[in-house]
Structures are given as structure tokens and as C-alpha cells.
Amino acid sequence: MDKDNMKDGDNSQLKFIEALSREASIEILLELCKDNALAERIVAMVKSDLSDVDADEVADKVFRSLNSIQVEDLWDNSGKTRWGYHEPTEVAFEMLEDEVRSYIQEMDKYHNLGMKREEKEYCKGIISGLLHYGQGGNNEFRDWCPDDPFTIAENIIYDWKQDHSAEEIEEIQAFYDSFFADDETD
User: Fold this and answer.
1) Which helix (H) or strand (E) holds 85?
2) 62/153 same-domain check
């Protein structure tokens, strides 16, 4: 229900809807989906909402997320511990992977819904964010993992290749390669 399109008299209804918890909202939506006509409208609205994927926005979120990792967190999680020694560069890689995991899960959501275009745009955004961070991240944490963003991007592409058509693989690989095209001409 769009707040802007509600009539003045519907404000009391809106208050009830806004008071719902996330869980209760989902339960009510699932109940409404038992009506086929309503289910079709709800699915159309959800698809419309989910289809708004912008690779540049995703890349910006990934970059900002990675660039916000504090080196002090790395220091706290690495070095000598009661369980042995944790190599800082290995811990840094794990921290990067952990930070990117939620974005990969979001991309997988699009895959599982069969929304190929959105999945591909999300993938491009993740790769772009990783590569921009690898090339120009400006936090002290990046000094501990200079090659890891590239490795994680390559791992994403490797996983992509396992479950997509040759055409889709070629497009993602070309997108990745475009980041390094200037390096080859030097």
C-alpha cells in the first residue's frame, strides 16, 4: 500500500499496518496469497520491487562496506591466541569474505527466483565493488589483503561458471576483464 496514494480517511488503516512486526507482515501476506487473484497482484508487486537492481549502486555499497572494515578488528582477531597463532593475512581474507557474503546471498536470491537479469546485475555490482576496493580502497585494512579482493572476485566468477550458460559466463568474464584492459595496453 503506497502511503502517497492513500486517501485521508485511510490513515487509521495505515497505522495498523505500520504497527505490524516483520514476521506478522509476512504471515498476513502469506495468508492473503491463498487468494489466487491477490497472490498474482502481490507477486507482481514483489517482482517490480526486486527488479530494481543497479550494478553501480551495488558496487558502491560493496566498496563502502569493505572500505569501512577497521584494521583494529583484524588485529583483535589475529596473532597469538590461546588456540594458537592466526596469520593476519589469512584472517584479513576471511574478514573480506564475511563482508561480501551477504551480497552473494542476495545475488543467490535472484538466482533462486529465476530473475537472471537482476542476478547478473547484482553479480556485476559485487565484482565491480571488489575490484574498485582492490584498486583504490583507502583504509589501513586493505594493506593487509591487497590481492584478496581480486581473488574473491575470481572465486565469484568461478562459482558463476558452474551454473550459467556460455553466453552468461562470457558476459560476466568480459565485464571482469574490462577492469584490466588498460593494464594490457601499457
Assistant:
1) strand 84-86
2) yes
Domain encompassing residue 173: 53-185
Q: Are residues 46 and 108 in the same domain?
A: no
Given a cut of 80, is residue 80 above it in pLDDT? no
Model confidence at 81, pLDDT cuts 50, 70, 90, reads: low
Sign of CA dihedral 78, 80, 86, 89: positive
> Cβ(161)–Cβ(169) under 8 Å?
yes
Grid coordinates belonging to 62 = 560493496
Of the candidates 120, 126, 121, the one whose C-alpha atom is nearest the C-alpha of residue 103 is 126
Average pLDDT estimate for 151-155: 96
Residue 31 pLDDT > 90, yes or no? no
Number of structural domains (the chain) is 2
pLDDT (mean) for 134-162: 93
119 and 46 part of one domain = no
Residues 66 and 146 in one domain: yes
pLDDT for 59? 97
Same domain, 27 and 93: no
Residues 18 and 65 occupy one common structural domain: no
The answer for residues whose C-beta is within 8 angstroms of residue 163's C-beta and 6 or more apart is 111
Burial of 62 (0-12, 13-18, 19+ CB in 10 A): buried
- Report the distance separating Cα 62 and Cα 71, nearest Å: 17
1 located within any domain: no
Q: How far apart are CA 89 and CA 73, in angstroms?
A: 13
